[in-house]
Fold this sequence. Notes:
Blueprint: H1 3-12, H2 49-57, H3 60-74, H4 78-82, H5 92-98, H6 102-111, H7 126-133, H8 136-150, H9 162-166, H10 181-187, H11 191-200, H12 215-222, H13 225-234, H14 238-247, H15 250-256, H16 262-272, H17 287-294, H18 297-307, H19 322-328, H20 332-339, H21 358-364, H22 368-375, H23 392-399, H24 406-417, H25 439-461, H26 483-508, H27 514-547, H28 551-576, H29 584-589, H30 591-601
Amino acid sequence: MGRLDLHMELERGDDFESYDLHQPDAKNGRESDNQVTMESESTDIFEDYDLYLAAKNGKQNDFSSILDRVSATKHVSSGEILSRVTPIGNTFFHVAAVHGNHGMVNYIATKYPSIILQKNFNGDTALHLAAKAGNESMVATLVLIHHDLLGSYVPASQGETEDEAVKNNFLRARNERGNTALHEALINGRESIVQYLIKEDPELLYYRNQQGIYGLYLAAEAGFANCVSSILQYSTDQERLNDQFKEKSPVEAAIVNKKLGYVEVVLYLLKGNGSCATRRDKSGSLPVHLAAVKGHLATICLLLNYCHADPVELLDKNGRNILHLAAENGKLNVVNYILHNPELNELINMSDKYGNKPLHLAAINWHPEIVNALTWDKRVDITSSNDKGLTALDAADFHMVDNPPFRQRLTWSALKAAGTPRRQSKSRRVSSNRTGKYKDRVNTLLLVSTLVATITFAAGFTLPGGYSISETNIGMAAMLRKKAFHVFIFCDTIAMYSSIVVAVSLIWAQLGDLKLVLNAITIAQPLLVIALTMMSAAFTAGIFLVVRNLHWLSTVVLIIGFVFLSVLLVLLIPLCMPLTSSNRIARYISYYPFCLLMLATRTKSPDKKYG
């Protein structure tokens, strides 16, 4: 139990619905005339399995000969055979496209052109499947085949509905989810295919799926900077482009779903539509607020430059600025940036709708690193109260549980060390079993101290090198004149007496008074640290003493001893430092141990490399 725990105790005193997966959406799900449905009379594609294998493996000659043979033997047309489907509704054309068999795709399309537009049970054409798979060359082949056999696509004419425009349009065909091949390429991260489809048909940029999502939103969400740039370049209809920013802001998608290159995405979007920097979402938050919540510092800087508004005016529905949000969500990089930016001084002590300062929010949400950064800054008003009359320390007390996690204890200690006052006393009854919960800790400390005392006592009578047998020095230590022996004696003596004092103080703790228990632990912990350190040092000195004539071995012993002694100190010192002391000197001394404890309790943070 650390010293901060003791100070805290002393101060407190105290069922699924069924649905049809194949049923199109009532509003947006529509089946084209070429859609393969569950009621299709097409026979099983596996009826002639050799034909299926030839399509799958790209064996065009085998496929052609088998097709002619089956057609002649069963007296059915080749078109009827080619209309056969798999259980998911894929035709031979789908199968060949998925497996990248260009020659086979050309052969089947030439033999039966209308199969190009045919869809499976998910509404996917072969183009959808190729786009999902990321086969750019197959996508290009399919587009070329469609152009050669069925003619190029025609842009939607005035007064023509979207459904009419895509009915027989290969590139604009939508599946059951309302996705075009462009949507599928973006969803599956096929950036090169996206670039190709945009160039082939820029009108695809204005098509949305059943969720109302456009390609620009998906590109921003995935962090495809080049795609976003291309989309903005080919989006010639500014009015329709502005509508996309209003409905589902791609800037928010880029910020919330941070990916590689996402800062560049935001930059392109701001250049394309600068007003989106000050457009609020449904919750009343600006893009800069989302960036602060996520800790995306580069994006915050970018958005502040494009906002052309005073940062003190960029508040969310709760009246919170970006420092409030960063402090509330534990984003230390953003907090440090604001504290070191003179242009953002006014944000430091701003109150939100409820009178909370950033320090209040950091304390309430238990972010010791944020509280530490704020309280070390002299501009932060640590004495201010919110609308409930609570200081940051009051707020921390109010939200603290009886047996708080370590990060709560660190937060509390940072507030105490900074001298944060209390405006309201929070009295809590001392439960009858409060003393009992320290019993195990006291017993553990007592056991360790007893072991140290026993070991160091024994070491004092089994000296390294033994005793002298000469008549003049009989009973004296054989290595009395060696400096390493002096170190051994000093360290062993200090270790033994320190452990004895610890044992005696913990005996006092057995009397049952809570304050006595806490005071005893306060004394015992630093003394036990000294005892363990001195015992380790005595061991190193004793071993060095008996192997000193072998230079390399004695050097290795010293190195190992110093390394592990340093590790021991790093681990033990933070446990006995006065982390809650508001004394200036004590606070400076405890700064680095406090930072070590914060590091030990910090969870893994997201990569900040790209913003």
